[in-house]
Amino acid sequence: MADLGLPPEQVEEYKAAFAKYDREQTGTIATKDLGLVLREMGVTMGLTEIRPMVKEADPDGTGKMDFEDFAMVVVKFILESDEDMTEQLREAFRLYDKGNQGYIVVQDLKEILRAVDDKMSDHDLDGMIKEIDQDGSGTVDFDGKKSNHWRVL
Questions:
Q1: What is the per-residue pLDDT across 67-93, written as a single tens digit (0 to 9) for each?
Q2: What are phi and psi for residue 28, nearest 5 degrees?
Q3: H helix intervals, the chain
Q4: What's the pTM value of the predicted model, to 2 decimals?
Q5: Do residues 58 and 64 make contact, with C-beta atoms less than 8 angstroms apart?
Q6: CA distance readout (Å), 12 to 8, 16, 17, 61, 79
């Protein structure tokens, strides 16, 4: 299997979700079950988003995909989602950095994160903020212009 560049525990999580739909233990799942497996992993997508993923994982149209194909599709989706979120955060950061000082206050970052992911719990949000603002300065910079602030990128 190709190296997915993921922590082993994440690969195990993917394998567990995949195994639930590999009912006959053939090492494959039906491509029509991709949406169900993704939902099992907490990813909700519509058919228009899933179809291109299925075509990529099953270019021959066999109706089956093995774990490696499945994992590659999921990793690609996650990377694209991360890129989209980073761009949304960058744009939101620009809007909140009203003085163009290169940083925003932590409270504004909380508003940005909530706008990007309204399902994020207060506990998760506070944990992220604590990790981001390690020095307790109450400010965050996005592009590393100020060395005493956390870098998102």
A1: 988 888 877 777 666 666 677 777 777
A2: -135, 160
A3: 8-21, 34-40, 47-57, 67-96, 106-116, 122-132
A4: 0.52
A5: yes
A6: 6, 6, 9, 27, 18
